[in-house]
Amino acid sequence: MSSDRSLSPVRAAYDELVARGSLTPDPAQVDAARELDRVLADLVATRPRKRFGIFETSPQAVRGLYLHGEVGRGKTMLMDLFFAAVPFREKRRVHFHEFMDEVHAGIAAFRKSPRGKNDDADPVEAVTRPILKSGLRLLCLDEFHVHDIANAMLLDRLFSKLFAGGVTLVATSNVVPDGLYKDGLNRQLFLPFIALLKEKTVVADLPSQQDYRRLKFAGQSVYAFGTGPEVKAAMDGMWLRITGGEPGVPGVVESIGREIPVPLVAMGAARFGFADLCEKPLGTRDFVRIAHQFDSLVLDDVPQMDRTRSDAAKRFILLIDSLYDRGVKLAASFAVPLEQLGADDKTAFEFQRTLSRLTEMQSEEYLAKGLRDFEARRP
């Protein structure tokens, strides 16, 4: 198939990464790129025209894609290439559980409103109306996986309205549609959604003999200690290994209506300085968003922490908890050995748990495991 960028932008971007040596060519990934190009071409061909900023015709949903495969097979990388290639603004990409968390929060707010107390009130209509009114055409959901009965009972009505309103779904998952909510309570009520999902998306497998994410860390020392050019060089080398040689570009993480700057983003990984995360007004929800968005993180210049850095130490504890709970791979440089990082009396107990987790996070066993899938915590 031609890799002409105008006809097959996802495949062309994939081929460029292969040509640079950032990726090893994989026939299964090529097939997935072809399906993503099909969705992209259909979206462009059916894009409604705008006049004076208003759509002249209603958005039309096209058949999307549900891409499933085991961890480390390249689903997130392919989604990155696809989303970047979509040439219009009426698109959104978000982790599945974070999207559902927003939906539940919207439903709860509607039910507390005067209108939500009416007998004929429809909370699903209330949360989908603003989404459709925004003109959203493409919804990309990472890691589609249903554990929660509250999500399971909601999905059919929610996505029926989104599809009817012209929204196209592209999703990645570790499981086939028939494996969603497996053995869940009242699963028979969930089956209509599985049928809807199969109708509105092409279900594609991404088989592979390699876990590419695991290969990045095999046999590597992921921590460096001290300061100076040698430590920086070690972190630079680790970054390029994780990204396949891609230097990265600045990015952002959307979190609760604001944007967290990311100094470098490439191939599903992010690179931050300690000050970027732990000396800024960030909290648990921000760190959870970061842990959901990236499978690997490089953290530079972690200092020794004493009572003058109490707030930064608390954020560092929350950051490591979020990365550990998710199974994110961490490469980091520390000014001193782990046992000398220190903490004040207020955080001493929590800091000991953090040191234990940091020790585990550099182990072969931790680095060999995939990301952990868990429901977003609703307040």
TrEMBL record:
GO molecular function: ATP binding; ATP hydrolysis activity
Top-level division of the source organism's lineage: Bacteria
BP terms from Gene Ontology: cell division
GO cellular component, one term: cytoplasm
Keyword check for ATP-binding: yes
Gene3D superfamilies: P-loop containing nucleotide triphosphate hydrolases (3.40.50.300)
UniProtKB keywords: ATP-binding, Cell cycle, Cell division, Nucleotide-binding
Pfam families listed in its UniProt record: AFG1_ATPase
Name listed for the protein in its UniProt record: Cell division protein ZapE
